[in-house]
Amino acid sequence: MSYNDKILARYDASMDDEFEREMLYRSIAISYTWAIWLLYIAFAVLAWVLPGVYAILVILPIAALIIAMATGDSWLRKRAPYPRLNGYSKLEQCLMVLISLAVIAGVIWNLSSIMDRDFSIGGAIGALAGIAASAFILKYLSTHQRRKDRERLEAQLEED
Question: Phi/psi at 19 (nearest 5 deg)?
Fold first, then answer.
C-alpha cells in the first residue's frame, strides 16, 4: 500500500458514510484553494523580506507546492481523467497577476544590489513572459491531457 493510499484510508476511516465523505471532499477542496492563495501571499512577503540573494529562496516553497500538486495529479490521473480547469474569476486573475508581480519585483529588488541592472530587467521580462505563456499553454495542455487520460482509461476498461 502506497503512502497516498494510507492517507486516503485514514481520511475514509474518519467518516461513517458517503454524505460525510462528500462533505469532507468539499471541505478539502475549500482548504486547498485557501492554502494555495495564502502560500502565494507568503511567497510575495518572502520575496520582499528575505535580504539580498536569500530572496531567491522563495523558490523553495513554490517548488514544494508544485511537487505536492503534481503528486495529487499523478494519483488522480491513474483513476480518472485530468479535471477541466475551473476558471478563475476576473478578480482572482487580477489578484494572481498582482501577487506574481509582487514576487518578481521583490526578488529583483533584493538582487538589484548584487546583479547588473540589465540582467535584472532581462530576468523580469523573462519571468513575465513565462507567466503569460503558461497561462495560455495551461488551457491547451489541460484539455489535451484530459482527452488522453479519458482515452487511456477507456482502453484499460476494454481490456478488463
Answer: -60, -45
